[in-house]
Amino acid sequence: MRVMAQMSMVMNLDKCIGCHTCSVTCKQAWTNRSGTEYIWFNNVETRPGQGYPRGYEDQEKWRGGWELGANGKLKLKAGGRVSKLLRLFSNPKLPSIEDYYEPWTYEYDRLLNSPAQEQIPTAPPKSLLTGERVQISWSGNWDDDLGGTYAHKDKDPMLKGIEDKVKFEFDQTFMFYLPRICEHCLNPTCAASCPSGAIYKRSEDGIVLVDQDGCRGWRMCVSGCPYKKIYFNHRTGKAEKCTFCYPRIEQGEPTVCSETCVGRLRYLGLVLYDADAVTAAASVEDDTALYEAQKDLILDPFDPEVLDAASRAGIPHDWIIAAQKSPIYKLIKEYEVALPLHPEYRTMPMVWYIPPLSPVVDVVRDTGYDAEDAETLFAAIDTLRIPVEYLANLFTAGHVETVERVLYKMAAMRAYMRDINLGNAPREGIANAVGMDGASMEEMFRLLAIAKYDERYVIPPGHRESAHHLEGTVAECPVGEVANMSLPTESMGMPRPARGRTNLLNWDGHGRPDGLFPGRTAASPGGA
Q1: pLDDT, tens digit, for every residue of 210-265?
Q2: In this structure, what is the dihedral angle of CA atoms 168, 173, 177, 182, given to the nearest 10 degrees?
Q3: N or C: which end of the chain has fewer CB within 10 A?
Q4: Which of 217, 247, 277 marks a domain boundary?
Q5: Local structure of residue 351 (DSSP, 8 states)
Q6: What is the Cα gyration radius of the chain?
């Protein structure tokens, strides 16, 4: 058993109101460079819908993630080394700008500087890429509030096979919000797909990052990521992705999206897992068994054997304490209400979700029954406006029973706490019916409903003695901007590249900088 630590997140979808505050603050903090107009490290999707980029979940088209080969071993869906070598300069498995959207602004000068006239001046949209006027037809969340669902209802990959269970009449349809960031997977296909080895998973906390100096812009990582959470910056020629706000995490602070979340639906914490068992868990033959296999990877931080192995692995004592207090461990392992997004991709994602229950209360109330009564709620699960099969396609590779078990727990918590809040005697039978006791149900309610800041975010800061492994370094950049192009200046936690090599993106085109033409004795890939 090889114990490693992983920073993880759980989102409670019952509390997401789709305000996009997380998206806006993330973009303000992390995408202030040229070429990031269509990059959304954090986006909030409306379901049902095609997502962002359009139809990213259709792996028959995009070939992202892992699959089992004939020998039962994992292999990249997009192909191995030979296949990638043949497609190195022409990769057809990439979303186009139409799958994202052509970013635009408006001709505000027509409004601000328009002379007095009889007609009201307008500000037509124009492309941020070409500067020409464009007709807006798609954006980061075109499905928001069902705006585009009716025109594209058959294009949501998660509706495949359950079309007869989904009603699209306006007064009978459903919707919920799904915030998404990089999954920081235990078995990331982006790292396995990168020909230059620029993508790496930090050994100390499991955060997946891109070394901007090492990236050569092959874009195989974009193809390999089944969640399409790696973006190609068309101005810098580099891949960019969510960094899990690692400079904040190192200081013990939550990510920007978590800090600014209006609904307080995000939970951050450390979990311990068995790194030696990841490949075996990801290689489980039955897709519907992947959730249990991944859950079993997460180790009990109170187990003496795990504690001993963690200590021998060099995990600091305060990190072990943080793992014991982690809300992530409680929601995934103790209460078993959090589920991974698309475990069938076999990347072992570490951003988990509590599926939404809210619409069932509206349905029950509209029938005239007590919407918070336990028996009524349990009976209504099967008639949710959100089909359980749809949630199962998202979170359990189609295993309906697992999703139903989570929804029963959430419904039981509502009914149990309703009695307490009304001053009635709590009914232990409600908790027992879902495999819990009253005390644990009250603890789960407190965590999900009224948890304090330091209960939602249990983040141990980085240690000074290991600072040289954690701190980012700044690449030498004498120019600042070349040809109106913002340059990458952070190496994302990787050591400074060996001297003698020059990053051409940092060269102004004048003179002959050292390392531009390696000598004949240079032990570098470009040496002759």
Answers
A1: 999 999 999 999 999 999 999 999 899 999 999 999 999 999 999 999 999 999 99
A2: -40
A3: C
A4: 247
A5: E
A6: 25
